[in-house]
Amino acid sequence: MVSRPLEAPAEPRPLRALLRQPAFLRLWLCGLVCGGLRWLELLAVGVYVLQTTGSATAVALATCARMAPMFLFGLVAGMLADRFDRKRLLQLQVGAVGLISLGQAVLAWQGALAYWHVVLGAFVSGTLWASDFPIRRTLLGEASGLARIGQAMALDSATSNATRMMGPALGGLLLEQTGLAGTLLLVGVCYGGAVLIIWPLAAAPAAHRTLGLLAPLIEGWHAVGANRVIQAVLAITVIVNLWGFAYISMVPVIGARQLGLGPTAIGLLAATEGLGALIGAFLFGVWARPANYLRVIFYASVLFLVALLGFALSLWWLLSGLLLLLSGITIAGFAVMQGTLAFLAAPPALRARMMGLVSVAIGAAPLGMLHVGVLAEWFGAGPAVAIIAVEGLAAMIATGLTWPELRRPSPRLGQPPPT
Asked: What is the pTM of this model?
């Protein structure tokens, strides 16, 4: 009897292989916990502000205070991530946000929490969260490796979308049962748990330790000027955040005034976008190939804006829900490829700074919210969303003409640089 040689075991599925890597698993779990807490806290604090001030404008300003630091400090966070141990920076970031929540919990328990406390806390927390792309996502990409970077970003994006659905629901329940003090206390404790999750990670040495800040800044801008992929990703990120994501604030208004829906139906309508984004993240993570990453981010962003235009004009709730589902699926293509392309296209020593620039581009979202708010005051919510969708489509056409490589395969993406 002739014995046959043992066959090599089949390579595990990409997602399963990723989750079997301890470093990746810890970074992913940290994102899962922190993402859920962020959405939970935003909902709870927003409801509290509305209850205590009676002003929707006050709620909007508190939300903008949380988002504005992405534009102001994203690049600075990237430079810091290149100069210091990223693991320690991530621990400090998560821990500091937890301390802010605990401090606000104490003030709320004493009945001393004022509106300015909320706005200041939102701004400081937003400043710390501006480092998520250059620190945690850069570490995530390094842990996954270039061969699985697309699947890694897709899983992280899907997780983010799942927390966007679950976090607000849990936040409303906790706020009703425990009050703001109890909710913020639990949030602060859970952030401490996230610090413990990433504590065993190995140190992530700095890329360089130059003393000045100006030289790394200039080096980063020169790298952008010489890298058309990074330029295109940044341009699309600005467009989608400035003329796309702003529609979210108008969904309740369109649901009530244009579709005639009640609060529960409006909530279900809004949830369809998150469901679509969750589905899309897995679809793009499984099926997209590196050679098509640029085409995915371009055409997915275009389809996202087309779906928004249809949603703005729809007068039938079922069609509106289907269009929001489509918008979620397509925006997942943008979200997955945004981080993937920035990581792949950047030189290893500049990855954190390039991810920081992505954070800066994301910081255009508050301006978009102000823009759609003004348009809604003039023309109504539906026409306002239609206008920003058309503006975004015009900008995407210009982007496709400026960077024609967005419309054709890029076989060199994902390949190691030539030696």
From this structure: 0.73
